[in-house]
Description:
The protein has eleven helices and two strands. By secondary structure, the chain is mainly α. The chain has a domain at 2-209.
Amino acid sequence: MSFLNALPGAVAQGLIWGLMAIGVYISYKILDIADLTVDGSICTGGCVCAVLIAAGVPPWLSVIAAFIAGALTGVLTGLFHTALGIPSILAGILTQLILYSVNLSILGGKSLIAIDPRANQLLLHMGDNIRSIIVAGLLIAAVIIGLWLFFYTEVGLTLKSTGDNPDMSRAQGINVKFNKVLGLAISNGIVAFAGALLAQYKGSANINDGRGAIVIGLAAIFIGLSVSMKIKPNFVVSLIGVIGGGIVYYVIYNFVILLGLKTDFLKMLSAIIVAVFLAVPYLKGEYFDKKKALPEAALSEGGDTDA
């Protein structure tokens, strides 16, 4: 019964983190960049949203401002990488470190700022999980439709080709550097957008909210793609799968908490979940597929001999 009671909250959080994972998907799968900025940009989105709401700005406008702030963090990482020649993974780490100080400044030197749900018409809040699920679902649908439309424009297609084969794209006259900056801006804008929703859902923004976000994002991606790629391997289905991965991750997460796991081990649990979903395809190919192939090969050779 405790698990069933916690399920709506797990689904609501899973939807928000699944949206964050879509941002990670753009950088990791489409651009082929391991961007660690997200640990900072999700916190930036939450901090901007919380401070603006506390100042009387409407929640919907605060979310838009959070998206813009997140996009700027992606631009910074992109410029570190393209203009200064810093490897993408180091560029993300540098931006992440910078954002810790920036986020602390946004919060006015505090580690946490609260949002009063009674004084503000928040888009979603843990006090009403069903409404939060509906609102998050509608926003996610809008994001997926927007991305689907964008990635089938000329700019979107060149951005995809940049991730698939940057050398060939460059040879075709595509501005690869611009596309990387644009892709990272969109990615981190979506991550910050999710951070703003998370701040509203929790009723607060914390300077440490982003720690381990990249691990959760990757977990959602690998869980989701392990299923969606078997159904229909296309862009929209993959994004829906990523959202589903976020939900599955948080359902498992809450189930383990209810079993009595100490909170000190939750980050370790996140890493283990990612490791399992990363290892399963490899182990399947290395052991099960090879073992299955050996008898088939032996039968084939035996048939040739008989012939």
